[in-house]
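@channel sequence for tomorrow's demo:
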Amino acid sequence: MLGHIYRHDNFDPKLFVNKKLISFDSDGTIQLTKSKIDSEMAKLLNQLAKKYKVNVISGTGMDYLMPNVIDQLEKNENITLSPTCGTRLVALKNGEYSLLYEELLTDTEIKDILAAFDYALDKAGHHPTQVWGEMVENRGSQVTFSALGQRAPTDAKLAYDPDLKKRTQIATYLKEKISDKLYDIKIAGGTSVDVTRKGINKGYGMHKLAEYYSYSLDDILFIGDRLDEIGNDYPAAEAGVDCIWVDNHEDTKKVLRMILGVKS
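structure tokens (generated this afternoon):
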């Protein structure tokens, strides 16, 4: 059953008093894309982790989450990470972060996905004159397309596809080569399209978190900026988790102040 999806400016925080774990998307939800969380967000998340279990589930990998998120926070065993759309779970144990599981794509799956991206980008006419870093990245458990490269500046990312039309077209072309019965193809962040094995997504990540903590899905609240049906946050709602849909990290700060009962 689909979880409730509340808009950030239209929900009653009393609905969430019994939640035990709050999970967040990263880019566009707790920080600007490919940037460190700011000091105010870090303060709010540190406060939150004293009252709740806190999880960050992201299309990005540990190499991004550690410097931009975890290194900005106080060490706390209540905080876990679910890199690459929940295809992995990382928890703090005895002062070190340990990998608890990972769902790796096979060599054949990766080859098929990469070939599909070649086809889709060519058909969409996506040939940017400037890119910053790798454009299609094999992350082991996920393949991610970043239209302007992984290290593109924030302004360029925000201007690329605000109405999602370009990436929706690319996702459509991908489905001509790889079946959406075998793969999840989801729009993410400001310039990305993520491809994972079918069902191994943020919904799967929610189930694994519930299993790890011996919680029910009703105990979890998810906050993200891509809760539209083609977004990579939507599987969390499909799993049955209640969600709050934000537009940016400033909205998330407002939500957290309401949940924590603190003023700006």
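heads up for whoever presents: The chain is about 30% helix and 20% strand.
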